[in-house]
């Protein structure tokens, strides 16, 4: 009843671990799957190791979190060791980033044999200049990165977009035109900031970070809704999901699958099973036989 087929990847339910949350080791990715997720997305990684920003890198605000990890990761060579250790039956999405189309391609080619799908992080709001949202805010750059990875890769490719643009439809169209198989919406919103009243200074070492959690859900829903009316590829919804009602809203807006990130900090990994159980009960109550039947119901 809950199973979905996302670009040929069979998932037992539509929930996925969002990139960057617990996705750095095979053991944590295996654990997330054992707690009920339908698929797992790794933390974003790059060709070379990246130390990221100094602590503090994350701060809580009402209805959300602001994080500026700075895309810290051990680099693709080391990350591959973890990918080898992920259990075979688990659908795995590798989140990758780079500073140029050729860098994205190099990372994608290193890992494509070890994963089911690749998610291009062209949307991080606190990445170093030349990375992250600086790519996803530019339609031409978005096109070039997606096109290059699609030409080189055999596995399905999802482009993860930033809401920090004037018109997300324009970027989504470019990603689709370049051949992406799916679009993930949205990365964290920002840059955002919190100031410590005791010190009078910004809390995060990077000063600015990306806002996630329930505060951004209405914006994520709007992005999914708008992009659903613009492209034909399947959408993966993410941003502020904490319970099955949020999932239903994302499905109605047009998402075929969803990801959960910040809510894990508050509710633990049990959230995956809880969301799936409650979603199944909702579908029975409302007479839905499959997830597909719910996708895009808010339109028309
Ligand atoms: C601590 C933290 C680290 C994150 N790291 C990444 C990352 O490495 N790559 C990425 O594409 N998104 C990253 N994100 C963004 C999430 O994948 C997600 O798009 C965003 O947080 C909205 O979903 P949520 O409200 O469920 O957290 C991160 C979010 C958080 C909170």
UniProtKB/TrEMBL annotation:
It catalyses: (S)-dihydroorotate + NAD(+) = orotate + NADH + H(+); (S)-dihydroorotate + A = orotate + AH2. It comes from Methanothermobacter tenebrarum. Substrate binds at residues 43, 67-71, 121, 187-188. Its EC number is 1.3.-.-. The keyword Cytoplasm applies. The gene is pyrD. Keywords: Cytoplasm, Flavoprotein, FMN, Oxidoreductase, Pyrimidine biosynthesis. Its cofactor is FMN. This is Dihydroorotate dehydrogenase.
């Amino acid at each position: 009843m809950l199973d979905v087929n996302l670009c040929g990847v069979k998932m037992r339910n539509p929930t996925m671990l969002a990139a960057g949350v617990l996705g750095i080791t095979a053991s944590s990715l295996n654990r997330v799957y054992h707690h009920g997720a339908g698929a797992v997305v790794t933390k974003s990684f790059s060709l070379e190791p990246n130390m990221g920003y100094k602590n503090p890198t994350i701060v809580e605000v009402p209805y959300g979190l602001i994080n500026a990890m700075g895309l810290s990761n051990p680099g693709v060579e080391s990350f591959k060791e973890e990918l080898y250790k992920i259990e075979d039956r688990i659908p795995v999405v590798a989140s990758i980033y780079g500073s140029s189309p050729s860098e994205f391609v190099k990372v994608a080619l290193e890992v494509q044999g070890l994963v089911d799908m690749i998610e291009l992080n062209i949307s991080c709001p606190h990445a170093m200049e030349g990375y992250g949202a600086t790519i996803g805010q530019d339609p031409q750059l978005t096109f070039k990165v997606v096109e290059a990875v699609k030409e080189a890769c055999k596995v399905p490719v999802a482009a993860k977009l930033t809401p920090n643009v004037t018109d997300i439809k324009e970027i989504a169209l470019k990603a689709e035109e370049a051949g992406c198989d799916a679009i993930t919406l949205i990365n964290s919103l920002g840059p955002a900031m919190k100031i410590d009243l005791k010190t009078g200074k910004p809390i995060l070492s990077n000063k600015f970070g990306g806002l996630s959690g329930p505060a951004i859900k209405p914006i994520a829903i709007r992005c999914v809704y708008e992009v659903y009316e613009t492209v034909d590829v399947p959408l993966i919804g993410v941003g502020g999901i904490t319970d099955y009602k949020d999932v239903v809203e994302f499905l109605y807006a047009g998402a075929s699958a969803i990801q959960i990130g910040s809510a894990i900090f508050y509710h633990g990994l049990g959230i995956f099973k809880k969301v799936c159980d409650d979603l199944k009960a909702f579908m029975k109550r409302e007479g839905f036989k499959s997830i597909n039947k719910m996708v895009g119901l808010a339109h028309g």
